[in-house]
From TrEMBL:
Coiled coil: none annotated. Residues 298-354 form the CBS domain. This is CBS domain-containing protein. It comes from the Bacteria. Gene3D superfamilies: CBS-domain. SUPFAM superfamilies: CBS-domain pair. The chain crosses the membrane at residues 6-28, 73-94, 126-145, 151-170, 200-218. Keywords: CBS domain, Membrane, Transmembrane, Transmembrane helix. InterPro entries: CBS_dom, CBS_dom_sf, HPP, TM_HPP.
Length: 411
């Protein structure tokens, strides 16, 4: 590559970058200013907007939840930016011509997923890179061993689905990559065994890198990280419970049970689905004017101690989990009382020697009726137990305040 061609490449790449970034930022600014869904931070279609859409375009399939015209414009310009820059880089460093394709066709389908639905599990980096590359390799293998093209195209796609599923990189354009490897003829054969890596793998990697940069610029989370995983990573108490402001009356296994009953595949990350349902439950609680029960917001992964445990171990648990109250149970796991740092700070015996009476509520009691207990300054947690004093959960001041704050925001 001569000096002039290098300069031309840099100028073209820089121009494409400035054009894509400028247009995308302009759409972001206009969309935030004029979007009718501006007041809804997650861009979920309201009932009125959905009815208007259905009345005007009743013959079309429903609009995907969370879809806005602004996001579709951003996706279009993202694809313009991503595909053009990928093609430009490959043309300069790989070459172009009859036997050196500028870009393989499945990358166009990958770009639709990457820029239009970046939160989809099918659009994540490993799905794009692994799905396209592995499927192309499957197609090459089928083309080598199967002479019948009709049988070969079917086998290539079916094997590609199996391999992508086993390697957790299911990606619809991978089926096209497998077909391209079987039907590509001399163009594919000219690349030989390198075809899955060059150009398919290189194209995929470049597109993902450009996608990461593009979504970073416009403020999208890519690679997608669900809200639930973010919150759990930051959870201060080192337990399996969700943070209090997204906690509700169901657990993850409830969602799994319902999905198994539906016997369908949904294009959504399980943690995203859990977060969505959590927020729907919070909205429903707000609509009920604060009639929230203890079991809806309590922590279920309760840290507790036995009465025979040493005070030093109990203090270590309190400090490690950053909590102020530990329920104390007997050998039958029946609640005896509670201990806190103030009870144990000067102790050197067993936990059972320093018990305080536990403040107990039933799972069906109204959570906000517990507020008076927290106003004395001595109580930091209420134990939720059944009639036999078996622990079901625990509610802290943070749980109550967080739910009150979120419900006030929704109102």
């Amino acid at each position: 590559m001569t000096l002039s061609s290098e300069a031309t490449f840099i100028i073209r790449a820089f121009g494409l970058g400035i054009l894509g970034i400028g247009i995308s930022l302009g759409i972001c600014k206009i969309g935030k200013k004029n979007s009718p869904l501006r007041s809804n931070p997650r861009h979920v279609l309201t009932k009125q907007n959905q009815q208007q859409t259905n009345s005007r375009f009743g013959w079309l399939p429903p609009v995907p939840v969370g879809s806005t015209f602004r996001n579709r414009l951003l996706a279009a310009f993202g694809a313009l930016f991503g595909i053009s820059l990928t093609g430009l880089i490959c043309a300069e460093f790989i070459g172009q011509g009859l036997w050196a394709p500028l870009i393989v066709a499945p990358i166009g389908a990958s770009a639709v997923l990457l820029f239009a639905v970046p939160s989809s599990p099918l659009a994540q980096p490993w799905a794009i890179i692994g799905g396209n590359t592995l499927s192309a390799a499957i197609g090459m293998a089928v083309a080598y061993f199967v002479d019948d093209a009709v049988l070969g195209i079917g086998l290539a796609v079916s094997f590609a689905i199996i391999v992508m599923s086993l390697t957790r990189c299911l990606h619809p354009p991978g089926g096209a990559a497998a077909l391209t490897a079987v039907l590509g003829g001399k163009v594919v054969s000219s690349w030989g065994v390198l075809f899955p890596l060059l150009p398919v793998g290189v194209n995929s990697c470049l597109l993902v890198i450009i996608g990461v940069i593009f979504h970073k610029i416009i403020g999208h989370s890519y690679p997608h990280r669900s809200a639930t995983s973010i919150e759990q990573a930051a959870h201060a108490h080192h337990t399996r419970d969700l943070p209090p402001h997204i906690r509700s009356s169901f657990i993850r296994s409830d969602i799994t049970t319902v999905l198994e009953r539906q016997d369908e595949t949904f294009d959504i990350d399980p943690e995203d689905l859990e977060t969505l349902v959590e927020e729907v439950a919070l909205q429903a609680r707000c609509r009920k004017d604060g009639q929230v029960t203890c079991q809806e917001i309590m922590s279920r992964d309760v840290i507790f101690v036995g009465r025979e445990m040493s005070a030093d171990i109990a203090i270590s648990l309190l400090l490690h989990h950053k909590i102020r109250t530990l329920p104390v149970l007997d050998a039958n796991e029946t609640l005896l009382g509670t201990v806190g740092l103030r009870d144990l700070v000067y102790s050197n015996g067993k936990v059972g020697d320093y018990l305080s009476p536990a403040i107990v509520a039933a799972p069906d009691d109204l959570a906000f009726n517990l507020i008076p207990h927290f106003t004395t300054g001595d109580i930091h947690a209420v134990v939720i137990a059944d009639r036999k004093m078996k622990i079901k959960g625990i509610i802290s001041q943070t749980d109550i305040l967080s739910n009150m704050f979120n419900m006030s925001l929704l109102k």
